[in-house]
Amino acid sequence: MHDLAQQIVSGLATGSIFASMALALVLIHRSMGVINFAQGEMAMFTTYLAWQFSQQGMPLWLAFPLTIAIAFAGAVALERIVVRPVERAAPLTIVILTLGLLIAFNGLAGWIWGYVIKAFPSPFPTTPLHFGSVAFSSQDLGIIAVSLASLGAISVFFKKTKVGLAMRAAALYPESSRTLGVRVGWMLALGWGMAAAVGALSGLMIAPVVLLDPNMMQGILVYAFAAAVLGGIESPLGAVVGGLMLGVGLNLIGAYVPFIGTDLQLTMAFAIIVVILLFRPAGLFGRRRLLRV
Amino acid sequence: MRDERVRRYGSVALVALLIAVLPHFIPSYGAFELTYVGAYAIGILGLIVLTGASGQISLGHGAFFAIGGYTVALLGQKLGVPYWISLPLAALASGVVGLGLGLVALRLEGIYLALATFALAVATPSTLKHFKALTGGSQGVVLSPLAVPGPLHGLITPEQWLYYVTWTLAGVFFFATSLALHSRLGRALHALRDNEIAAVSFGVNPHRYKTIAFGWSAAYAGVAGAIVAIATAYASPDAYGIALSLALVTGAVLGGLDTLWGALIGGVIVEFLPLWAQNINPAAPSVIYGIALILFTIFLPGGIGRALQSALNSLRLRGGNQHARS
Questions:
Q1: Chain-chain contact of B127 with A266 (C-beta, under 8 angstroms)
Q2: Domain extents for chain B?
């Protein structure tokens, strides 16, 4: 029983990382109708920046916010400079462009920091927390708390602030928003910035667990795809719930179904993506889209 | 019109001749490298059929390379099947799996197909590693080297033999693809790509044609993967990861998705660009691939193939005008 509780909590921890990445994907998908395949590599790259800062003696409480700010500003610049020229192109073109970003960021990190795996400092204490007779890893609980807090903050931002409202309007009705004075182009850039900030945060949280290396986010990106598809790629809430479900599900299967174990987790994610897209393309929480001819 | 045809066949014949005599003027290792170029060109030809002609994207063609590579490797190692039998079987196996994925792809449009095939590409190595009893796990499978057949023994090296086999296959595939894309099949695919609703109302069956395109493309990738495995004499899970799939897509986009020459250019890029860039830094190939992909998408979406074609056309036009004036 204790074992099961621990497995669920650590599943929720990885699940909340998937949830954050999935939310980052959903943010961009809602505003542009595309998937940013570079989302994971951007997070990986900024996590290396944080590592660099901490190597140079910067305390983590300063290095982390600085990294997130850089991620935000960098992604806004990237959208304005690189993505903007193809904004109106076919989705496939934008997908290929983001693949270019993926490959380039992966290479850049390898070039600057090499391919040797690095340990990453954890912001959380190493002593476990006890609830009754069950001990939980502080790191897991910390990851869950930070992720859920940031997801909550984003939801408040979209629901309660004027900029959040403008961003939602720009995503849904770009033409009418433009007539009402919303700068749609900048709203897209802001979306990229926020997605990168959320991604950066999840990179920082997961790096102490998976260790720092240029390919660390590739698997996580696939799980985030699966989470987003599971929850419905149009729905931010769905992405979060999908991420948590996937995290717990994979962790329990890894622990209790020896045939699948950990090797086949990526295969499972692929299978989930295919099955959900085939049988329930709108996901568990999304609305079905109707196509008018 | 006849001039145009003469020119086209002329340039094809010229390239074919060049490929045929090349091994006699370069060292054996050069022929070895050019075998890879041929294999990648066949794989990218598959992407041109799929993405260029039928408008479906696959970021997971590395998985079909894996099916082709492991088919020849395992048939050879476990059952002693010779390559001339196992190579067509590799195409068949990969093509059948491709048809299956094509059926799935029918219901996933655009970015969703990209997403699913990306996941397939990332999941391929760990899946191969999991089924140790069959695939040898992360150890991979060693292949026996290709032997020069009796009559040619002593005349050419094994590298040259594999080179000729590869490029003969490549020639056949290029010719067949060109024929097919100019037939009813190609027209149906183009119509579906450009306007599916209009194509359907003209009686084109989207399910049949799009699935065929997927299987066809996968079969090419299977052959390419088999050749690469034979040339390397080794099939290992980590060779078939996302990096391979992305390299193929990059080669296809840089070479040009709307002309068959793009596959040839793409094959050269995928083989030689990393070899050359690795001298700068182990990570340089990725950086160059990535930046080139971004720049091409923005500034040269037709790739090198189309750019060369339009450059040649404008040269020809200018020449033609001068001719007319004199």
A1: yes
A2: 2-325
Beta bridge partners of A135: A130
Alpha-carbon Rg for chain B, nearest whole angstrom, is 20
Domain B2-325 grouped into CATH 1.10.3470? yes
Q: What is the pLDDT of residues A253-266, one digit of tens each?
A: 888 888 777 778 89
The class (CATH top level) of A2-279 is mainly alpha
What angle, 0 to 180 degrees and rounded to 10, lies between the N-to-C axes of helices A138-160 and A184-210? 170
CA distance B104 to B106: 5
Question: Which value does ipTM take for this structure?
Answer: 0.91
Cα separation, B179 vs B300, whole angstroms:
27
Could you tell me the residue ranges of all domains in chain A? 2-279
Which of B108, B109, B112, B197 would you mutate first to test chain A, the one with the most A CBs within 10 A? B112
User: pLDDT digit string (tens) for A176-235?
Assistant: 888 988 888 899 999 999 999 999 999 999 999 999 999 999 999 999 999 999 988 888
Chain B residues touching chain A at CB-CB below 8 Å = 51, 55, 57, 59, 104, 107-108, 110-112, 114-116, 118-120, 122-123, 126-127, 129-130, 197, 242, 246, 249-250, 253, 281-294, 297-298, 301
What are the two backbone dihedrals, phi and then psi, of residue B59, each rounded to the nearest 5 degrees? Answer: -100, 10
